[in-house]
């Protein structure tokens, strides 16, 4: 395992040991979920995930929890919604600093200028440019909404 490509995975594993020693049950549970997801993907695809792939996986985990929160809140299950929100907080500790709305808008403006995007047909081009810059740093669903509003 090369440390340069897997610094994030190593950090998660170290945090698991720390959480075990500190008896932080909730944090430990979430870290184990993260490690299980990483391991599952590595086994399924017979690869070793690098940091970029781990970030993508963590981003997906946060998105899944946001979707669950919406569903739980609609069903009036605030108890379950709170659990999911707490998990998001722990997962986000491994993601880069989140961008502000102003920073996201600025990146969208720059991408529109670079591609000359004018309508919804150009959405794919914009997302192709923005995804690597925003992965793990912004809710891609919200970014997509901002781009649609800009192009329509």
Question: How would you characterize this protein structure?
Answer:
The chain is 76% helix and 0% strand. It has two domains: 7-92, Hypothetical Protein Yqey, Chain: A, domain1; 101-151, Arc Repressor Mutant, subunit A. The protein is mainly α. The longest helix is centred in the middle third of the chain and has 24 residues, at 51-74. The radius of gyration is 18 Å and the shape is globular.
Largest sheet: none
Q: Under the CATH scheme, which architecture of the largest domain would be assigned? A: Orthogonal Bundle
Distance between the termini: 47 Å
Count helical runs.
Answer: 7
Please give the oligomerization state of what you see: single chain
Rg value: 18 Å
CATH class of the largest domain: Mainly Alpha
Instruction: Give the total of beta strands.
Output: 0
Task: List low-pLDDT spans.
Answer: none
- Classify the helix fraction into a percent range: over 70%
């Amino acid at each position: 395992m090369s440390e340069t490509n897997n610094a994030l995975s190593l950090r998660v594993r170290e945090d698991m040991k720390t959480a075990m020693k500190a008896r932080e049950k909730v944090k430990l549970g979430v870290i184990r979920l993260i490690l299980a997801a990483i391991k599952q993907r590595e086994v399924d695809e017979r690869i070793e995930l690098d940091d970029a792939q781990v970030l993508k996986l963590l981003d997906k985990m946060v998105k899944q929890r946001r979707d669950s929160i919406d569903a739980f809140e609609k069903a009036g299950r605030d108890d379950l919604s709170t659990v999911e929100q707490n998990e998001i907080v722990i997962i986000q500790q491994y993601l880069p600093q989140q961008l502000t709305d102003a920073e996201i808008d600025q990146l969208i403006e720059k991408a529109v200028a670079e591609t000359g995007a004018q309508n919804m047909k150009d959405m794919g081009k914009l997302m192709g440019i923005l995804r690597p810059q925003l992965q793990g740093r912004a809710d891609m669903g919200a970014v997509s909404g901002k781009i649609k509003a800009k192009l329509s």
